[in-house]
Structure formats: structure tokens, C-alpha cells
Design brief:
The chain has 675 residues and is an alpha+beta fold. It is 31% helix and 25% strand. Among the domains are: 148 residues, Tetratricopeptide repeat domain (Serine Threonine Protein Phosphatase 5, Tetratricopeptide repeat, Alpha Horseshoe); 49 residues, no CATH class. The protein has a four-stranded antiparallel β-sheet with strand order 1-28-27-26.
Length: 675
């Protein structure tokens, strides 16, 4: 590791020399090297910007990165010079409640600032004249996010808790906005739009997050073209912009979801946890979508990778492996299931297509991971296996071992990640005995009990020498006990599949079009764990680096977390607030980060000099902090309230992740700062 850091430093020094020789390459150098691993390791607090008197709920850099805007509960917006740590302008926005979003309008010369607030209003401000030039009052609930697009400098969008996405065009004489998307038409009156973002490379695509596990991606062009065609074919006297029959044309919407979440909704409801997308954003190249899922983890969706969730639609009778491989569908919807049950007829060959041979340096990493596993350090083992997988993506053994570590750790989503790893291991090596057995256990833990039994029976047939092992007998007993105790009514059985899609808005009827879109959702590529996101619904997660090499997110424990994007490994935790970090906005071209939260200050972070004294903001015990946050997310509401009041809760017995043992749930103590 030290050798790698030295080489990285040498490479950067070499590029500095090249930059001095060839000034024309300066911009490329800056963009490529502005966030690197050595810089992340030296990231520390540079300054605190004082000026607000309430929580700072939103931050926004201008295009050049020489101005920073902030909005607060104090109903003011401030424009800062972040390099001189100086307040330039205080905007009296005219809002009557908390400001939740601020955005510079592109190509306006940093003259126009848009704000959205809890008073349901959207205001447009001229920073030069220091006055509010437009006030929009079309929403009927809190405005949570504003989005802009470089390609459309006079247009912006808003998302509000009335479930409406509105579009504004400042070239119009009208002081009203248009309804672009009405989520209530799909999800009922209880739906709330929480966040939105426009793809930076193709401004025709808009991502929307709301309450519930599904994130929606819309093609704005298709929606507008559909509305125009409807208008042209209808009497001019009839208002048709929001056509109730077909508000969104086929193909204009695509849904994304972490595969285990729709089925887990009843469990989260029982724990009084709400699943809500608190922030969505695109990668710099526009090919990935990052989502901070309130009540859960941070998820990365690859917009170019079309993988159906493995457990979104489990049919009673699985398709054959040939059908799955050929992409055949039922009713036009591929279920994406690759379960090695008897009907899937996995290849009998024990030939290992995922070679177990590893180069010496990866063999050492695997052994370190195995040692961590033996010490019951599950997170450390997962990170080491992930590092190995990143460099040897076709090694079945690494996937199988990481699945075992996920199953031992038992954090939210771990059993689904383990199921994905088992399936990957079996794809690479159909004769992987442990992966096959672990797959049955994962299905059981995910409450796919009949499928777990089918998978276990197939395992016994394939590996008869293991059919009566203690582990096999124990799982068989658990499955049959669960089947015996299952007393669903006939009506429940008829609506079982629908419950998976309806449960977060149970009082509302869901249109068939919406059900189909949810069934066609795509699964995530990566998952990032360690932070806690249950207390606020504006918590951000962002890409950090010109190529989005790192992921950053705030947390309810007052810290912010930094992960490597590709390995998903946690590399840094810094204390960013006395209570909660909500906002993290990376500078567009420097290794410079602005954060804010409950404290009435904006904090600026950059790599500190090597000669600087010890960084007191660093959280050294990253695994302990992540474990405490996971337990906090699973604590009951009374304990969370006590934690927020500053009480120390010892043990938290019985509140660990579902399926955890008592000894697991009493490790350490949890102490969170008051909010």
C-alpha cells in the first residue's frame, strides 16, 4: 500500500513537471488529478463560513467554481467567495419558511439565483440588482429541490411534496409554470416528490426521487412531444397539458430499484422506517445515477447496464435457464431470475470457468480477508474481498467468500448482495458447492421460502453427499417451519405479488401502467454502507472527482463518509457537524468540498499540508462508526429519540439488523450527537 502511494506521488510530480513545460495541458491535468487517493487521505477542514442563523439546507457552486451559494432555515441565501472565506452578498429571498434548494441559472453570468422553500414558493432573484424578479406559487406543498440544465439556460424544474414536477421557462410572459410530471396520477395522493436532477451530458433526461424505493428516469422530449400531439388532436378549448388518460407516453419512463426493497416494505413499515429517496444525481459523464435512500443505503445505478432485480418478480415456476439466457419474457416482462433451482437445470459440468488461480498479490489479499473473516471482522473481510474482485472480476471463489461475509454481517441489504454474489459465483463456476447452498439460505432470509426450498432440494440432488449435513438439515428445518406457520388467506395469496408494489401507498389504487413500470425496474450496480439516513429527508450523496472516482454522503451522526466508487470500500470519515451532515457539494474542478447541516455554518474541506498537525476531524474507527450507524437505523423510535436527545444507549439488545443474534446486537455502545 505504501509503495502504491509513493508511485502515485511520483506520477503526480511527473505530471506537475509536464504541466510546467506544457501549459496547454494545465486544464487537463487539473481535471484528471484534482481528486486522488493521497488528497483524500489528507482531506481536512480549511474554514468555517459564518453568516447564517439557522440550519444550512442547501449548497451550490457556480459553473466556474469561484462562487458558492447557500440557503438556510433563516430564509436567507448567501453568496460566498470560498477562496477568501468571505461573504459577498446576503439575499433577502422573501420566503416565509426554510429554504431547501438554491441553484444558479446556467449562462446567466452568475446573475440569476433560483430558490425553493417550505412555504411552497419558488423565487427567482437578480443578484446584481439584489431583488426578487419572479415569484411562483403553483405548488401546494413544500418545494424540496430545484434542477437546472446547461443546454436550456432559461429553463428550470422544481420537485415538491405535492407530488408534482413543474417546469419553468423565464422567456415566457406568463408567471405560471407547467406540470411536467404528476406523480399522484401513478402513486396516489400520498406521494411526495423529494428530489430531482438533470443528466449533465444529455439534458433531455430527468431523474426524480420520491417516497418509496423506486427512482424514476424520464425523457423530457418524449413527454413534451406527447403533450403536443394530444393538444393538436383535441379542441383548443380543452386543457390537455396534463392529459389524465395518458400523461406519460410509453417508453418515456424507466424505473430503478434496489432489488430487495419492494419485498421488504412491510418490514420497514413495521419498524416505522420510511423509504424515501432524499437525493439523486448523475455521474459527470451522465452514465450513472446515484441515490441516497432514506432509511437504507446509498445506491449506484448504471444507466448502460440493464439488469433486472433478482427478487423483484419471483414466479411460482421459474423459467428454464435457456429461456433466461435467451431473454424470453412473460407478458413482455423479463423476470431476470437466474436461480439454480431444478427447473433451471444448471449445467452438470463441474468445470470451473471462474478460475481460482490468483496472482501472488491478490492471493495475499484473499488470505488477509480470510483472516479477517476468522476474527469475525465482517466489514474488513468484505472490503478486502471487494478489493480482490475489483482486480479479478471473474474469480468465483472471491464472490463466494464475500457472500459468506455479507451473510454473517447481516446489515440491511447484505443478504441480497450475498444472493447476487452467489449467482455470480455460480455463473463463473456452476459446481460451486458453497455458493449453491448459500443461495438457498439467502432466499430463505429474504423470505422467498418456497423458492428457498426448491433451491435446497436442487442442492441435495446435485451434492448428495451434503444432503444430510448439519447445515443442510438445519436450513431444511427452518424452511419447513416457515412454510408450516405461513397462514396467508386466499385473498392475500391472490394479491401477494401486487403487495410488493402497492405497500408504500396502501390507501391508494395503483394504475396498471405504474405496476408494469415497477415490474420493469432495473437493479443497482453498487451499494455503499456505513452512514445513517433516517432523520432528515434532504440528505445528499454525490460523486467526488472529475470521473466520479469517489462517493460522498452525509450522516445522522454528524459525520460524512467517503467511499471508493468501484470497490465500494469506505476510505474516510470526517466529523462535519455537531449533529447531522445533510449537504455535500464538491467543487467542479478542485479537490475542494463544501458541507453543511444542522449547524448554522458552511464548512470547507481540502487536502491539508503534510506538515500540518494531526487532523482532529478524522474518525479513526471507521468500522465502529459504520456499525453504530447500522444499529441506529434499526433502533426503535423511542431509542432513536433518546439518541437524538444525547442519551447514551448501552447494548441496544434486539435492535440489530433482522436475523442478528443477541451477542451481535450487544457489541459496543452507540452514542449519537443531539439533533
Amino acid at each position: 500500500m505504501i509503495c502504491g502511494e509513493a508511485m502515485s506521488a511520483v506520477n503526480i510530480t511527473r505530471d506537475v513537471l509536464h504541466r510546467q513545460i506544457r501549459d496547454k495541458r494545465a486544464l487537463g491535468f487539473q481535471r484528471f488529478h484534482h481528486v486522488t487517493d493521497p488528497f483524500i487521505k489528507r482531506l481536512g477542514l480549511e474554514a468555517e463560513l459564518q453568516g447564517h442563523t439557522g440550519c444550512v439546507n442547501c449548497l451550490e457552486w457556480n459553473e466556474r467554481g469561484d462562487l458558492l451559494a447557500s440557503g438556510s432555515d433563516d430564509q436567507h441565501a448567501i453568496i460566498w467567495d470560498p477562496f477568501k472565506h468571505k461573504k459577498l452578498t446576503t439575499i433577502h429571498t422573501g420566503h416565509a419558511a426554510n429554504i431547501f434548494s438554491v441553484k444558479f441559472l446556467p449562462h446567466s453570468g452568475d446573475r440569476i439565483l433560483v430558490t425553493g422553500a417550505a412555504d411552497t414558493k419558488v423565487h427567482v432573484h437578480d443578484l446584481t440588482a439584489k431583488e426578487t424578479i419572479h415569484m411562483f406559487s403553483d405548488h401546494t406543498n413544500r418545494v424540496k429541490r430545484i434542477a437546472t440544465a446547461p443546454m436550456w439556460p432559461n429553463t428550470f424544474w422544481s420537485a415538491a411534496e405535492d407530488g408534482i414536477i413543474r417546469q419553468y421557462d423565464l422567456r415566457e410572459n406568463s408567471k405560471r409554470s407547467e406540470v411536467l410530471i404528476d406523480l399522484t396520477e401513478f402513486c396516489g395522493q400520498l406521494v411526495e416528490a423529494k428530489c430531482l436532477a438533470v443528466n449533465p451530458r444529455d439534458n433531455n433526461y430527468l431523474a426524480v426521487g420520491s417516497n418509496g424505493p423506486f427512482v424514476r428516469l424520464y425523457d423530457i422530449r418524449m413527454i413534451h412531444n406527447h403533450r403536443k400531439s394530444v393538444s393538436q388532436s383535441t379542441s383548443a378549448a380543452v386543457h390537455t397539458f396534463c392529459d389524465r388518460q395518458k400523461p406519460i407516453p410509453d417508453g418515456a419512463g424507466q424505473y430503478y430499484v434496489a432489488g430487495h426493497l419492494p419485498v421488504k416494505l412491510p418490514d420497514y413499515s413495521n419498524r416505522l422506517r420510511v423509504l424515501v429517496a432524499t437525493y439523486v444525481t448523475f455521474s459527470p459523464d451522465g452514465t450513472e445515477l446515484l441515490v441516497n435512500m432514506g432509511g437504507e443505503q446509498v445506491y449506484l445505478f448504471d444507466l448502460t447496464f440493464k439488469q433486472r432485480p433478482y427478487t423483484l418478480l419471483l414466479p411460482k415456476k421459474c423459467q428454464s435457464s435457456t429461456d433466461v439466457q435467451n431473454g424470453k419474457t412473460t407478458n413482455g416482462v423479463s423476470n431476470g431470475i437466474h436461480l439454480p433451482a431444478s427447473r433451471l437445470r444448471l449445467a452438470e459440468s463441474k468445470i470451473c470457468t471462474g478460475s481460482s488461480e490468483l496472482p501472488p498479490h491478490l492471493e495475499r489479499i484473499k488470505q488477509q480477508a480470510n483472516d479477517a473473516f476468522a476474527r469475525q471482522q465482517w466489514t474488513q473481510a468484505i472490503q478486502l474481498y471487494s478489493l480482490g474482485i475489483h482486480q479479478a472480476s471473474r474469480n468465483a471463489m472471491l464472490y463466494g467468500n464475500r457472500a459468506a461475509a455479507y451473510m454473517k454481517r447481516k446489515w440491511d441489504g447484505d443478504h441480497y448482495d450475498a444472493l447476487r454474489d452467489c449467482l455470480k459465483a455460480l455463473t463463473l463456476n456452476p459446481g460451486h458447492l458453497k455458493a449453491h447452498f448459500r443461495l438457498a439460505r439467502c432466499l430463505f432470509e429474504l423470505k422467498y421460502v418456497p423458492e428457498a426450498l426448491e433451491c435446497l432440494d436442487d442442492f441435495k440432488g446435485k451434492f448428495p453427499e451434503q444432503a444430510h449435513s448439519s447445515a443442510c438439515d438445519a436450513l431444511d428445518k427452518d424452511i419447513k417451519a416457515a412454510l408450516f406457520s405461513k397462514t396467508e388467506s386466499a385473498e392475500d395469496k391472490k394479491t401477494n405479488s401486487a403487495i410488493r408494489f402497492h405497500s408504500f401507498s396502501r390507501k391508494e389504487s395503483i394504475p396498471e401502467d405504474e405496476i408494469v413500470l415497477r415490474e420493469r425496474s432495473f437493479d443497482y450496480k453498487h451499494r455503499y454502507c456505513g452512514h445513517c439516513n433516517t432523520t432528515t429527508d434532504i440528505k445528499e450523496a454525490n460523486f467526488f472527482g472529475s470521473k466520479g472516482q469517489y462517493i460522498v454522503s452525509g450522516s445522522d451522526d454528524g459525520s460524512f463518509f467517503i467511499w471508493e466508487k468501484e470497490t465500494t470500500n469506505l476510505v474516510r470519515i470526517l466529523q462535519g457537524d455537531e449533529s447531522i451532515v445533510n449537504c455535500l457539494q464538491p467543487h467542479p474542478s478542485y479537490c475542494f468540498l463544501a458541507t453543511s447541516g444542522i449547524d448554522p455554518v458552511v464548512r470547507l474541506w481540502n487536502p491539508r499540508p503534510e506538515t500540518e498537525s494531526e487532523n482532529g476531524r478524522v474518525v479513526e474507527d471507521m468500522e465502529g462508526a459504520a456499525q453504530a450507524n447500522q444499529r441506529r437505523m434499526n433502533a426503535d423510535p423511542l431509542e432513536v429519540m433518546l439518541l437524538n436527545m444525547g442519551y447514551r444507549i448501552t447494548g441496544l439488545r434486539g435492535v440489530g439488523p433482522e436475523g442478528s443474534d443477541d451477542e451481535d446486537s450487544s457489541e459496543g455502545q452507540v452514542q449519537c450527537r443531539p439533533s
